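Hi support team,

I'm opening this ticket because the web form for multi-chain structure prediction keeps timing out on my end. I have pasted the exact lines I submitted so you can reproduce it. The total is 668 residues across two entries, so I didn't expect it to be a heavy job. Is there a limit I'm missing, or should I split the entries? Thanks in advance, R.K.
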Amino acid sequence: MIAPQTLLDKLWKAHEIRRDAEGVSLLWVDRHLVHEGSHHAFARLKERGQRVYAPELTFAVVDHYAPTRNRDTIAAPDIRRMIDTLDGNAQTHGLEIFGLRDPRQGIVHVVGPEQGLTLPGLLINCGDSHTSTHGAFGALGFGIGATQVAHVLATQTIPQRKPRAMRITIDGRLAPGVSAKDVALGWIARLGTSGATGHAIEYAGSAVRALSMEGRMTLCNLSIEGGARFGMVAPDETTFAYLKGRPYAPGGAAWDAAVDDWRGLVTDAEARFDREVRLDAAEIAPTVTWGTAPDQALPIDGTVPDPAGLPDAEAAKVRAALDYMGLAPGRPIAGTPVDQVFLGSCTNARIEDLRAAAAVLAGRQAKVPGLVSPGSMIVRKQAEDEGLDRIFIEAGLDWVASGCSLCVGMNGDLVAPGKRCASSTNRNFRGRQGRGARTHLMSPVMVAAAAVTGTLCDARPLLKDRAA
Amino acid sequence: MRGWDQHEGHAVALPIENIDTDQLIPARFMSTPRSEGYGRFLLHDLREGAQDFPLDRHPEASVLVARRNFGSGSSREAAVYALVDAGFRVVIAPSFGDIFAGNAVNNGLLPAALPEDMVDQMIRSLGDGAAPVRVDLEAGLIRMGGAEHRFDLDPTWGLKLRNGWDDIDLTAQHSDAIAQFAERRATRFPWAWPGAKRSV
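Hello R.K., no limit was hit. The queue was backed up. Here is the completed structure from your submission:
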């Protein structure tokens, strides 16, 4: 009899070519996604005089440096060069590229699933820590550094030690106005930014089953903010319905065979995890970050911590974060004025996120400026077909093209020093959105509510009698 | 990359938790070619505003002691390039971001995990100063100020650091096994290859 296996066990075994004496596995890579930041790896390949091992499994996407406006005339030579370099590398190695002028361009972790490049049972690598997003489909998706990107380019394999298995079970129903983003910020606040280091997380439970693919992607995307390189959800009918008919997904008889295989990608009933965490969905409230790490988060009706009552080391950390963020200790977080908002990123810029934000913004005016950058140009088109762009524009927000934009501050979009931004992104690190920028992470509806009131606030009253 | 067994240098403390990769190297510097050197970008924004920053006080330091979750955040290997180009060979902390630690080893930088109380002790004894330190990779020992600390390191990482191995060369030895695996996978799971592109 085969011992009961976790989803992680099954995915790992399916990709393991060999395991060395020290216990490190050599894994087969089904999809390798590269972006402008992969230039170090291509340079390394060139130094070695090597070619890409499997160009048909390697896809290039322009996202990190993609301008969100005036794409025809990129003024900054550095940005131009980064994008041209990726174009050149794709051409040299015969890779399909979703370039700046491609109507399918967007953020790599939005484009992969949208195109059906991401499928259950695959191993997906990308030189980006949010590659955990793809785990939402029951895939092994994990971020790698430049040396490893070069390794995958050269061999289509990745040496990796198997992580420990962790399960976060979320049962019950999320209240209206509460989303996957709040679930993620909630568990990270509880366990800490290194709470899941060394682990692969499987998200399970009725609240996870009830999530759309967009919600599952948000949840898996944020795994790395709690230290886990891998996040995953077992595939089900929701997964199959999302994928069917996508451009690169299998079609016809191949689709049926694939779904048959995918149905087996579940954790066996008796399988053991190294670590189990349980959350009650009903207890999760809209959550915002107050500090400079994603675990410095609290419910919107909470108060900012006061270092006075804390042990020395903790007090110093809190004081440093409050000082950077320009917040007074012990005060309610709600009511904090913001200077601007950003709706975008691989975490929360899919169509469902835009719809949710638009539900708050419809017929209302934003009190502060803001940027809405859809996760892909296809999402952008879909939103325009649904009239969402009009809602954002009429509210006074800028409706721009797709890219990583203000989540990483590489493409020229920046928050000015000392300015406060309500943001649907994934990192509130110091300087992440620009030098001295103050970032508060939250869900799309909360970003929209911050736009409407000009302050951090609970979105739920603004959603009353509206469908989000 | 050259391997190393022993390192003798000076340690300096940066007693901060969660030094993420965005702090190690702000994004705006990352379009720079590596050949220009990344050392000047290390902790750029944290250093520029601060007076008497530990790294500036002790430019000779090659061992950095920091608090938990060092190198959390993005997969940018540039964070490691900045440390290495600034002359660092070892970072000591209670824990590291997973991706950062792997990137470090791939560039000859040792991420030495020590129990939190030992790191605290080191940070206290270093204070604002720098102290001689000796790191022995094979023995897994750090000697500083008469004390000896044992660190945890994945055995494979130890081998890689000592021998300066490049994974691509190691993997090349298994090229037949890889080709056979790919063939088996393509036969058994044809759906794992991208389907014929249809119109969007």
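A quick check on our side: Chain B touches chain A through 62 residues (CB under 8 Å). Let us know if the file doesn't open in your viewer.
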